[in-house]
Amino acid sequence: MTTPTNEPAGVRYLTEDVRAAVDFYTTHLGFTVAFDATPAFADVRRGALRLLLSGPASSGARATPDDAATAGRNRIHLVVDDLDAEIDRLRDAGLTFRSEPVSGPGGRQILIADPAGNLVELFQPAPR
Predict the structure, then answer these.
(1) pLDDT by residue (tens digit) across 67-115?
(2) 75 vs 9, higher pLDDT
(3) Residues spanned by the domain of 75
(4) Calpha distance 105→116 (Å, rounded)
(5) CATH code, domain with 32
(6) What is d(CA 51, CA 33) in angstroms, rounded to the nearest whole number?
(7) Per residue in 83-118, is it b (16+ CB within 10 Å) or e — as a string?
(8) Number of domains in the chain
(9) How far apart are CA 95 and CA 89, in angstroms?
(10) pTM of the predicted model as reported, rounded to 2 decimal places
(11) Quick check: is 4 in a domain?
């Protein structure tokens, strides 16, 4: 196995429209663009998370079997300080949510989807 480096962990999301995905993540969720090769591919980052946005022409999308390329129940998990404020901000921006807020022993969360339907969980940890 390759020795781990200090590179951020990466998650690949497949999307039909890389530009729309880049705009969604940078405008609404605080990501910055590290590399932009739209319409094929973009690398956006938020803290230690590297999100690889792969369009149909990217090598990542071409290497994925058709039956595995649909959005599933997996999602990226973004920690926020104030979930209610984030919900209000995103609703004011015209976005809709895929769930209602849910509370559990670890905190509260809500799901939103990017333009391709990939899920993003916004999570506010419970006070400790």
Answers:
(1) 655 555 678 999 999 999 999 999 999 999 999 999 988 999 999 999 9
(2) 75
(3) 9-125
(4) 31
(5) 3.10.180.10
(6) 10
(7) beebbeebeeeeeeeeeeeeeeeebbbbbbbbbbeb
(8) 1
(9) 9
(10) 0.81
(11) no
